[in-house]
Automatic annotation (TrEMBL):
InterPro entries: ATP_synth_F1_dsu/esu, ATP_synth_F1_dsu/esu_N, ATPsynth_dsu/esu_N. The lineage of its organism: Bacteria, Pseudomonadati, Nitrospirota, Nitrospiria, Nitrospirales. PANTHER family: ATP SYNTHASE DELTA/EPSILON CHAIN (PTHR13822), ATP SYNTHASE EPSILON CHAIN, CHLOROPLASTIC (PTHR13822:SF10). SUPFAM superfamilies: Epsilon subunit of F1F0-ATP synthase N-terminal domain. Keywords: ATP synthesis, Cell membrane, CF(1), Hydrogen ion transport, Hydrolase, Ion transport, Membrane, Transport. One of its GO terms (molecular function) is proton-transporting ATP synthase activity, rotational mechanism. Residues 4-80 form the ATP synthase F1 complex delta/epsilon subunit N-terminal domain. GO terms for cellular component: endomembrane system; plasma membrane; proton-transporting ATP synthase complex. It holds the Pfam family ATP-synt_DE_N. The gene is atpC. This is ATP synthase epsilon chain. It is found in: Cell membrane; Endomembrane system.
Length: 143
């Protein structure tokens, strides 16, 4: 059985289709959703959003926002959503290296927290790219 999934940011609507399963990272931990799930609302953390539709598994980078889960639909309104194929690996690696170098310097606690968030974001992006490159079929991530 499938449920309706909507993925959007304030700037764009990425997806609205029936899917079989999603897995995401909320601020209180990872969660998975199948049709008929108990309703809940949670904040998103920086992480990977996996979407299974029949035999295919698709990956998205997600940072911040909220997820509303209802028995027949899930709505993701994120601050940032990127399809795996939209991720710029070179840019992510450069940002990660810049953050590593900045964290070696004496900086304010606020700046340290900001650079740690950059490390987390870019690490997730690079992990998604790595999984995508090792996938057997372009455009999907099969387990």
């Amino acid at each position: 059985m499938a449920f309706m999934l909507s993925l959007m940011t304030q700037e764009r609507h990425l997806l609205s289709e029936e899917v079989d399963y999603i897995q995401a990272k909320g601020v209180e931990g990872e969660f998975g959703v199948l049709t008929g799930h108990t309703p809940f609302l949670t904040l998103l953390d920086i992480g990977e959003l996996l979407v299974r539709n029949k035999e295919s598994l698709y990956s998205y980078f997600v940072a911040g926002g909220v997820v509303e889960v209802l028995p027949d639909r899930v709505t993701v309104l994120a601050d940032t959503i990127e399809r795996a194929e939209e991720i710029d690996g070179k840019r992510a690696e450069e940002a990660r290296q810049n953050a590593i170098e900045a964290l070696k310097q004496p900086i304010s606690p606020e700046s340290r927290l900001g650079f740690e968030q950059v490390l987390k974001r870019e690490g997730v992006r690079l992990k998604i790219l790595s999984r995508r490159q090792s996938a057997r079929h372009p455009g999907s991530l099969e387990e």
